[in-house]
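Hi Y.,

Following your request, here is the sequence exactly as I used it, all 163 residues.
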Amino acid sequence: MQQLEMLEKTDERKCCVCKEVKKEEEFTYHKIQGRQSQCKECRKELNKKYNEENKEKCLAMRRDYYKRNKDRYRELSRLRNKNSVKGKAVNRVNAAIKSGKLVRQPCEECGAEKAEGHHDDYAKPLEVRWLCRSHHKQWHAKYGEALNACTVRHWTPPKEAQK
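Below is the corresponding structure, written out as tokens. Let me know if you'd prefer a different format.
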């Protein structure tokens, strides 16, 4: 009977680094190995320490990854081209967040903490509404691309402008 109790699945684990008992969600999941033995916080600290101790090796690995994924990086840079109105607006928002002039807010629709800045008009780069990824996609599916995004490929006018 005692062995069966030990085999029961619990939603808590003990971190092998900090020795604290935490919920299972606080441990990363590996598709082959399952839940990791270190909690996310300890893993983050271990990674940070490793990166500091092995700067050259990590830098070389990043360069190699970049070389192998150049096409992907080119596509991303094309989308955020500094010469496009959309790219400039995105860059302005990111700079304003970094400098503290703009503060990231929760999603206007559901209140989710992780939210993205959405532009209704790219000519007004610091006027953004905060939407989670899901609601941001829904907004674009319903209304199309924002105003003044004329330099972006595949631009579609918002449905309001089509009437």
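The chain has seven helices and six strands.

Thanks again,
Q.
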